[in-house]
Design a protein that fits this description.
Blueprint lengths: L24 H6 L12 H9 L5 H13 L4 H6 L6 H23 L8 H6 L3 H14 L14 E3 L3 E4 L2 E4 L3 E3 L1 H18 L4 E4 L4 H11 L7 H5 L17 E5 L10 H5 L2 H9 L5 E3 L14 E4 L2
Helix pairs in contact: 3-7
Bound molecules: zinc ion (ZN).
């Protein structure tokens, strides 16, 4: 169910980090009609769950996904609707409502990419926390609550795009020193060649922030984990969480980032320049074509050195 292109972290990690761009979860949740309630898949997994006295639909759903990942029922993954019970879908919507203001505040302050697990869970009730905990365990991001701001990261301020004659600041982003150096050299050379340079719309993202992004995209993809994962990775599986081979999402000076259609970005001279020269600075394109596991992401470049 998850791509295995170049190791366990090679998962799409789309940069949709703007709360404003996220559709109203309430509308989407109520619009998720026709979704089977109990499509938890193989009898083996259900019997395992019963033996463990685990009956929460969420966990059963996650167990089925694990079975899918092991190739137990590939067809199921393609046809399935929601992986969550109606009750858990409501809980997820309530989590998004609760966290929305917090995330917005942190984005404004330029601190969203450094969100900690404890901050994510602070304002949630026990049922909501259980959803977070299960997803953390499922994604393998169940470790300690390390403070991302203690990592060796460089904060990028003063990045602007210009749309309709108006300059808009990109919220501060964080990258490793190696990526900062490589990106700076690359930008200077692109500027010389093209008279313009790409900005970093998303760099490092903490596991907690990555999980928030994943949750925020679940309603859009009918609460289906596989479909959501094509566009935004679970924590621990995103190249935006890697301190050794960090990925950056790029946006051009006019604000074109491929959000609506990847082709809008891939036809840019800046993208063509990247395909010719990015490797000289250690960057490689992670998701070069659409597959069942990942979408084509011409804006997403991983640092490989
Ligand atoms: Zn990305």
């Amino acid at each position: 169910m998850y791509p295995n292109r170049s190791g366990p972290t090679a998962i799409p990690c789309r940069h949709k980090h703007s709360v404003n761009s996220i559709e109203d979860p309430t509308t989407l949740a109520s619009g998720s009609k026709g979704i089977a309630k109990h499509r938890w898949g193989t009898g083996f997994m259900n019997s395992l769950a019963r033996q463990m006295k685990i009956f929460t639909p969420l966990l059963q759903g996650l167990l089925v996904c694990a079975a899918l990942a092991a190739g137990a029922d590939k067809a199921f993954g393609e046809k399935s609707g929601s992986d969550f019970s109606p009750r858990d879908r409501k809980l997820i919507v309530s989590i998004l409502r609760t966290l929305g203001p917090l995330i917005k505040d942190r984005q404004t302050a330029g601190r969203a990419p450094l969100l900690r697990w404890s901050e994510l869970a602070h304002s949630l009730n026990n049922k909501q926390r259980l959803i977070i905990r299960n997803l953390r365990q499922y994604s393998g991001a169940a470790g300690d609550d390390e403070d991302p701001s203690r990592q060796p990261l460089v904060r990028l301020d003063d990045q602007y795009i210009r749309t309709n004659g108006q300059a808009t600041a990109i919220p501060p982003q964080y990258v490793t020193p190696a990526v900062y150096d490589a990106y700076t050299r690359m930008s200077q050379d692109m500027q010389k060649d093209l008279g313009t340079a790409l900005r970093i719309e998303s760099g490092y993202r903490s596991p907690a922030y990555q999980l928030y992004l994943f949750l925020s995209h679940l309603p859009r993809y009918r609460f289906n984990i596989a479909k959501t994962s094509r566009h935004v990775a679970l924590p621990g599986r995103s190249e935006h969480g890697s301190l050794h081979h960090l990925a950056i999402d790029l946006i051009n000076a006019e604000g074109i980032n491929g959000d609506d259609n990847p082709r809008n970005f891939s036809v840019l001279p800046e993208y063509r320049w990247m395909t010719l020269h990015a490797k000289e600075y250690g960057f490689g394109l992670s998701f070069q074509e659409p597959t069942i596991d990942s979408a084509f992401e011409p804006w997403h470049w991983r640092h490989r050195q």
